[in-house]
Structures are given as C-alpha cells and as structure tokens.
Amino acid sequence: MKVKPICLLHTKIDSSDNVLKILRNRLACGFPSPSDDYLEELPSLDELLITHPSATYLAKAQGDSMIERGIMDGSLLIVDRAIEAKNMATIVASVNGELTVKIIDIKQKLLRPANRQQRPIPLPEDINVICEGVVTFCINPQYNTSFAC
C-alpha cells in the first residue's frame, strides 16, 4: 500500500465555523434521542485526533495491503512523527525512498502487510528503511464518496 502526503495540519483556524465538529453522544440509528436538544460545546476533530500538531500530517492510502487493519484504498490517514514506532504498530515507512504503509515487526525484522494475500518485506541491512511516522487514525469515506484532496 502506497501513501501520498497531502497536507499539513498546523494551519491556523480563524473561526469555529471552519472547524469540523463531532457529537459527544453516540448517534442513534433509529429514533433521535431527546437529549440531543441539550448538547454541549463540541470538540473539534483536531482536538480529538491530533496529539502533536507540529509533527502530524495527513496522507491518502492507495492499494489494498492494509485492509485487515481497516485501511482501504482512498482512506485518509493521520500520521504522527512524534510517536515512537513500537512492535506491530502501523507505520509509514520509506523503503529506498518510496513511501508505504505497513505493520512494523521489530522482532522478526519485517514490514508486514495486513492482507493475507501479500507477503511481508524483509528488512535486511542493505535496504534503507526510515520510519516516517506512526498511523494513529484512519478515516474511511462511505459509499460513493471520496476525499477532495
């Protein structure tokens, strides 16, 4: 699965009208809840999803090698460069200059796909591999939609 960085998240928001908000309560898939009339101030997605704004970037996933981790072709990934990659974390790796999303298996020295139909990438000493960040969240578009960027 390849990734393409698309934008940085440390842009300044001038007004609360520009910020995506989410509901604190769960959304009912049946009848609306009467408590919806009493919702408090909603947190922004930035507050919920980004711990290190200056070290975080968005990337768009391409391919199907990470489908068993919920990362689909076209998913929007939130990648944090300030987090240390621990064993079995989903990371963005630069392998000989090409970006890919894989599971880092430090003990076995492999980059593992999350798709049983694909093989892991061994990490011998002669391959230049750099961790470009840890994937912290994945946002998937729903039926018949896609991200504009």
Distance between the termini: 18 Å
Mean pLDDT: 80
CATH topology of the domain at 2-12 and 53-139: Umud Fragment, subunit A
Structural class from helices and strands? mainly beta
Proportion of helical residues: under 10%
The appropriate CATH architecture of the domain at 2-12 and 53-139 is Ribbon
Radius of gyration over C-alpha positions, nearest whole angstrom: 18 Å
- Count of helical stretches: 1
Strand line-up across the major sheet = 1-2-3-8-4-5-6-7
- How would a textbook summarize the main sheet? 8 strands, antiparallel
Inertia-based shape: globular
SSE order, one letter for each helix or strand: EHEEEEEEE
Please mark out the parts with pLDDT under 50 across 5 or more consecutive residues, or reply none. 6-13, 15-25
The percentage of residues in β strands lies in: 25-35%
Regarding CATH, which class of the domain at 2-12 and 53-139? Mainly Beta
Provide the CATH superfamily of the domain at 2-12 and 53-139. Answer: Umud Fragment, subunit A
Question: How many strands in all?
Answer: 8
Structural notes for this entry:
- The protein is mainly beta and 149 residues long.
- The chain is 3% helix and 33% strand.
- Strand 4 and strand 5 form a beta hairpin.
- The two termini are 18 Å apart.
- About 13% of the residues have low confidence.
